[in-house]
Write a structure and sequence with these properties.
Layout: H1 5-11, E1 24-32, H2 37-42, E2 50-57, E3 66-72, H3 79-93, E4 98-102, H4 106-111, E5 114-116, H5 119-125, E6 136-137, H6 144-157, E7 159-166, H7 168-184, E8 189-194, H8 212-233, E9 237-242, H9 249-258, E10 262-263, H10 266-271, H11 276-292, E11 298-303, H12 311-326, H13 328-332, H14 337-346, H15 350-356, H16 361-369, H17 384-402, E12 411-416, H18 427-445, E13 451-456, E14 466-471, E15 476-481, E16 484-489, H19 499-512, H20 530-533, H21 538-543
Parallel strand pairs: 3-4, 3-6, 3-7, 7-8, 8-13, 9-11, 9-12, 10-11
Antiparallel strand pairs: 1-2, 2-14, 4-5, 13-14, 15-16
Helix pairs in contact: 3-5, 3-18, 8-9, 9-19, 11-17, 12-15, 14-16
């Protein structure tokens, strides 16, 4: 198969492993993480497990084992390297191990769609982006029927362990599956790997999810490019919406990498109960200040989930969902857009109705018309950047009429989303993902189940990383989902008291004014000085600073 030059060269890259995994390993059991009684009741067989880590040990013999691997959820750069690390790790411990990949995500396990992964297939995909080796999917593993279907194919293929590569929902499913197989005595281990470009799967034991580093560097390059265009043309404000519905980690990291004039963090909006008008004021203040300095251009970045954190919008969306889900049959009979909007207006409280009529027509229409199969507002489709541009335009026009704004304002909108999900992984993500896969193999060989792989000290050189595992149950909490209380792995939002946000908060006023302080990260660098090519995210550096010994 013909390859591009970069594809060929990346295939030759040898990911780095922690020193402790290169030879023999010794499993060290450490502290047991206390979990709530409610979680113990749901997961009696996988609670009370210790955190584990690997030390360098003597070479020892392991029995060969057949393993299944599943890619679950949306793509993230580095997934192929997790599989490569798992494949190489299994062969390192016993060359007679076999690895099966389930096609199309969790549905492949249920529908018995699989391939046996060969060395040639792994070699073809080393250090590449995407999940195309075996594909992914969003089927949830949550019913006994599904678990039994999985058991059937595992028994047929002699599979004794499953590795599920996914985000918080996928690893929640992995936790439930591990508990079920343990309770039933099926002798099928389950291990998970932390994946999501959103960066919200992290905690005391998981310093970052894979893909976050690469995605943020892709987006930061694009933001830097439009900032360079802005400072060159000197006539456009670029409004950029970024991935991140539940948390603003991507927006915060990209702000640290590029220093835009304005970055809105959803968690701060929620904490301060900022209205939509408050957010517009923040942007307009920068526009006016920069115009006074002769700079009629700039950049604004926002997370895609911002709209759900604005109090009056959150209230409006809830009322719309409640009204249209309960009266979905009557609503579906309405013929025209005007009829639907009128119907929507009548279902709202006076406060929400008054807010609704202030929204630009395009956004109001999206809220009224674009519904998911359950009748809910499709928040991810709302073009928040367009909304902010229109509201800022309206306010600046009024200010110009009053004589308080004498500059010019012309805005362009962008959404950077899928561009970041399948890039060639950075050296960091290539190394990290390979280590995640190799550590999965080590956990399996040591008989562990109900664990997520944990790699710590990630800002240190990779040979000093600490590889191990943390019980799924240590990360579980109870949440109401669609009216039912369920155990889930909790998402971690931006901590307004932590170092990354504190750094951003200390510098944003300087970035907003008429002095241009833009940074231009440029494209991801794979070859060159280690400090450039292997660098982690600024977020990780601020959260876990590495101190040379």
């Amino acid at each position: 198969m013909k390859k591009s030059l970069i594809e060929f060269e990346r295939g030759l890259y040898k990911p780095k492993l922690p020193e402790t995994l290169r030879f023999g390993v010794e499993l060290q059991k450490r502290e047991t993480v206390e979990v709530a009684d409610e979680i113990k009741d749901i997961f009696p067989h996988t609670s009370g497990l210790p955190v584990v880590r690997f030390l360098r040990g003597e070479e020892k013999k392991y029995e060969p084992i057949n393993v299944g691997v599943i890619l679950s959820g949306g793509q993230a750069p580095g997934g192929h390297n997790v599989i490569a690390g798992l494949f190489d790790g299994l062969n390192h411990f016993n060359s007679r191990c076999r690895l099966y990949g389930f096609i199309g995500g969790p549905s492949g396990l249920i529908d018995h769609q699989y391939i046996e992964i060969s060395f040639d297939q792994v070699d073809e995909c080393r250090n590449t982006g995407g999940f195309d080796m075996i594909g992914s999917g969003r089927t949830k593993l949550e019913t006994e029927e599904q678990f039994e279907k999985g058991r059937e194919i595992c028994e047929k293929l002699g599979i004794k362990a499953l590795v599920i590569i996914g985000g918080d929902d996928s690893n929640t499913n992995a936790c439930v599956l591990a508990e079920y197989y343990k309770r039933k005595g099926y002798n099928i281990q389950v291990v998970g790997c932390p994946k999501t470009i959103d960066g919200d799967l992290k905690n005391e034991y998981i310093e970052t999810s894979f893909g976050f580093d690469t995605a943020c560097k892709v987006y930061s390059e694009l933001i830097g490019n439009v900032q360079r265009d802005a400072i060159s043309a000197k006539k456009y404000w670029h409004f950029v919406r970024l991935m991140g519905r539940s948390a603003s980690h991507i927006t915060l990291e990209c702000a640290l990498q590029t220093q835009p004039n304005v970055a809105i963090i959803s968690e701060e909006v929620s904490a301060k109960k900022m209205s939509l008008n408050d957010i517009v004021d923040v942007i307009v203040d920068s526009v006016v200040k920069r115009a006074e300095g002769g700079q009629n251009f700039g950049t604004v970045i926002v997370p895609e989930g911002l709209i759900e954190f604005v109090p009056e919008m959150k209230k409006l969306i809830k009322e719309l969902n409640d009204a249209l889900v309960s009266d979905s049959e009557e609503y579906s009979k309405l013929r025209t857009d005007d009829d639907k909007r009128y119907y929507v207006m009548q279902s709202l409280s006076r406060e929400s109705r008054d807010f609704y009529v202030t929204l630009p027509n395009k956004i109001a229409k999206q809220l009224a018309l674009d519904r998911d199969p359950h009748g809910n507002v499709q928040v991810s489709k709302i073009e928040t950047e367009e909304l902010l541009i229109e509201l800022c335009t309206q306010k600046l026009k009024r200010m110009a009429e009053e004589g308080t704004f004498k500059g010019k304002f012309s805005a362009l909108s962008h959404f950077f989303g899928y561009e970041g999900r399948c890039s060639y992984p950075t050296n960091f993500d290539s190394n990290y993902c390979y280590t995640l896969g190799f550590t999965s193999a080590a956990l399996i060989m040591e008989g562990m189940t109900g664990y997520m792989v944990s790699i710590k000290h990630l800002t240190a050189p990779s040979d000093q990383w600490i590889a191990g595992g943390v019980p799924f149950t240590s990360m579980m909490t109870l949440e109401k989902r669609k009216g039912v209380v369920k155990p889930v792995i909790r998402k971690t939002l931006v901590d307004l008291d932590d170092e990354p946000f504190s750094f951003f908060e200390a510098h944003r006023a300087e970035w907003a004014d008429a002095t241009n302080t833009y940074l231009y990260p440029g494209p991801i660098q794979y070859y060159g000085p280690t400090e450039l090519c292997d660098a982690t995210t600024i977020t990780l550096q601020l959260e876990h600073p590495y101190h040379h010994s």
